[in-house]
Structures are given as C-alpha cells and as structure tokens.
C-alpha cells in the first residue's frame, strides 16, 4: 500500500508519525466479480496542533 501526504503539516516529525500510523492501517481490497482489484482511496485526517 502506498501512502502519501497530500498536504503535509509544517512539522516534519508529525508528518513522519502520521505516515507511520497510516501504513499500519489495514483495508479490505476493492472487489470486482469476486476478485480483488487495484483501487485508490483518499482519506482525510484532520487534527489540531496547539
């Protein structure tokens, strides 16, 4: 699974931690005719840094 930040924060360490966490997520594959197919999914993650 490829993971990228489309809008990284101005905090490099936070970006690194976010990427590490996202790479641990697991998803069920998209299916077509009962077979897994390649797909793309954009996921928005919102957070605040105080």
Automatic annotation (TrEMBL):
**Keyword set includes Heme:** no
Q: How does it sit in the membrane?
A: Single-pass membrane protein
PROSITE patterns from the UniProt entry: TONB_CTD
Location(s) in or outside the cell: Membrane
Gene Ontology CC entries for this record: membrane
In its keyword annotation, does this UniProt entry include Endoplasmic reticulum?
Answer: no
Q: What is its main location?
A: membrane
One Pfam family this chain carries? TonB_C
Q: Which residues form the TonB C-terminal domain?
A: 1-50
InterPro entries in the cross-refs = TonB/TolA_C (IPR006260), TonB_C (IPR037682)
Q: What keywords tag this UniProt record?
A: Membrane, Transmembrane, Transmembrane helix
Gene Ontology biological process terms from the UniProt entry: transmembrane transport
Matching entries from NCBIfam families are given as: tonB_Cterm (TIGR01352)
Query: What's the name of the protein?
Result: TonB protein
Tell me the organism. Caballeronia sordidicola
């Amino acid at each position: 699974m490829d993971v990228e930040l489309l809008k990284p924060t101005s905090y490099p360490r936070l970006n690194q931690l976010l990427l590490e966490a996202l790479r641990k997520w697991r998803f069920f594959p998209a299916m077509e005719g009962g077979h897994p197919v390649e797909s793309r999914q954009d996921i928005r993650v919102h957070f605040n840094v105080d």
